[in-house]
């Protein structure tokens, strides 16, 4: 390490640091600092990399050696510069301000090492992601300037960062152009990078890559199959309905040249396309059927069959076409499990077709030609035709009679079983054992069997104790509906009992709305306080829920001192007489709203005041001392516009209600919003007005928000907001209609 031969020094540093621990680092620290600033690139790089490895066990090491690392960041050697920046970044990763200074310092002028620049881009992207405000725009400007760098790896790193950070298609144009150039590169690595990144972009901004369609189509014939597969899946995800026919023709020859794992990816993309464009089911189903006829493994064939089955279930118009393709496939199907599944689908969907008899021949052929499990599945499928279609019952009975002579026990048993049920002419029996057979939930069945073997292995297992798939689904839907119901009514119902401690609360009438609790302290503080705003027609009740997290303190006479807001009249309060450890207590403050609605907007300063007495942590009993008075500052409580309205998304009758309200008072104004993305702006407006996101409708360039509801004095209001982003900035035209001109104007003023 201290020798004269640089070749040995670099290797000695790496070897020494691999066996060094925190107790030995002091002995070599001086030599390591000298090695970091050594003129030999191999020695300096070895010392820097060893520093990063040692920091895993000695966290503050990079901070102690950061000054030496920063000295060599501008080294002429690209790897030394890269490793030095990594050490400096590791030293400052927990200090955002220091990281900002580091990125700002080395981004003007930028570093010469492309590796270091890539790392600097990642640091900048992380800082920009953590702070989405305009303050991070300088980092985005640096990243976008790297799109014009001469190094391809720097350009790609910058494009990758822009695509993950920018939210509007307009801001992505430059990065997409760079990736488009990569798609036409002579280097396979660049083509793969461009195609892969564009494929990821389709999930968020499919319209942004419309300009790359020609380049992606050229990649379908790329000799690198990974590149070609990415190009195909991207085109399938972003293609228009009119281009599907041409696209299917282009990828026909491509499909036969790629292995099964790539084919599965393409089939998954086609399955999503079936859902997106249901009117193209003929073309897509024919293409999938052609793939079924090709050679392939069971996983590949199963993926195609799943896609066709999903098409049949989701699109009733595709049922006949899909069933026909499945019937052709089982004629030559080599995979028993797949044939059994397709026969099950034919038995379930075939009787619903216009001409169900056409499928019986394909199914019965399996009884004659296939192995035992497939023949048994065919018997079940044929029997379901007889159960569902009375006109086919005589023929089905004949087929089942023939199946009774089969060599396989399972086939004979099923034929006898289904024949007996069909001959009984009992609709309830047919429905219970053939048409609507309860299928147990397999996960719960497995758990129940395991528990039964552990606890009662000698007793018979009751299959009826296991819920069916339908019952599980209904239970989940019921639980979800119950949760939604509880979320909508639980706040009012939950706090109604607690507010009875206020002696005069009955005079206020029925509670209009209880808002969601807001935290007034941090979760790890000694006193946790949150506030619930209860809105009445003319009064406001502030409920402060307080928890004492100190087990050696006993609080008495706890109340909240409110700051004054002009227009509000303080009526009274209900204090908490005692507050023991970890048991919530409530304090209520009652106020009367101002007469003018606009004066109701404001914030109350809050201070928690109480008497503290020491107590025994084990028993919770306070000492005999009188205690002492203390205060604890809290966050302000803001009264906003959304607190005084109950709004919901537009229903089917909204349009008629809007037209009927044309004669009432209307207030309209246009606002400029701070958000750059129109989707984020629409969500922000809904959150500001406490409206559900389902009120948002529209496309990528224009959004509409429609809804309505009541003001706290039961004054109806209707809202329509139109958002557009004509030149990169989002503007909103908000229109409010209400019988009260004052309320309509109040909502506009509150939004502004």
TrEMBL record:
Belongs to the COPG family. It comes from Iphiclides podalirius (scarce swallowtail). Keywords: Cytoplasm, Cytoplasmic vesicle, ER-Golgi transport, Golgi apparatus, Membrane, Protein transport, Repeat, Transport. Residues 493-639 form the Coatomer gamma subunit appendage Ig-like subdomain domain. This is Coatomer subunit gamma. InterPro entries: ARM-like, ARM-type_fold, Clathrin/coatomer_adapt-like_N, Clathrin_app_Ig-like_sf, Coatomer/calthrin_app_sub_C, Coatomer_g_Cpla, Coatomer_gsu, Coatomer_gsu_app_Ig-like_dom. It is a peripheral membrane protein. Pfam families: Adaptin_N, Coatomer_g_Cpla, COP-gamma_platf. Residues 650-750 form the Coatomer subunit gamma C-terminal domain. It is found in: Cytoplasmic vesicle, COPI-coated vesicle membrane; Golgi apparatus membrane. Its main location: membrane. Residues 1-425 form the Clathrin/coatomer adaptor adaptin-like N-terminal domain.
